[in-house]
Each structure stands twice: as structure tokens, then as C-alpha cells.
Amino acid sequence: MAIDIFTTLDWSEPPKEMGMPLQALWWLKKGELRVGPEWEKAHNIVQAMEGVPAFDWVHALMHWIEADMGNADYWYRRAGKRRATASVSAEWEHIAAALSEVTKH
Fold this sequence. Notes:
- This protein has 5 helices and no strands.
- The relative contact order is 0.17.
């Protein structure tokens, strides 16, 4: 699992070689999985690629973070996914691991 790249959270921005869905996840983690400036940066990334499943999956998590479960469920459906865990932080780990595996191949 390539989540070790997220040890770069003390950087001012995500590594350039990181894929855009992972960059959105990076911003979410940098912002401690809360709504704030980092959440907004992540939201800009996912909104720009609306309709691409990986981005829609991260978008779903973002609306879970803001406790807008109806909107989160909408984005999970668009991504062809379901919530796989019981908490935002565990879901972040799940999505990050899955997207990291995809980018390795």
C-alpha cells in the first residue's frame, strides 16, 4: 500500500507526481478531515473532474465530512461505490489505499 506518500503532510502542497484524486485526499487529510481551506482545495479538484469515478468517490467522502449524507450518498452512487467503513477517517484510509493501488499499475 502506497499510503506512505501521505507522510508529506508537513509540505505546503501535495507532491506533483501524485494523481489528482490522491491530491484531493491529501488536502483532506492535511485539513484533518474537516471543512476548511484544505477542504475547499480538495473540493475544487473533484468538482473539476465531475463524472470520473475516482473523483466522484472522493467527492462522496467530502460530503460525508460535512455531514451532508444525502449529497454523500449521491456521489457514492455516481462513483459506483458504497460506504465501506463506519467512520470518516477509516473511509479516508480505505479510499486512499484503493486509489494508491490503482496508480501503482
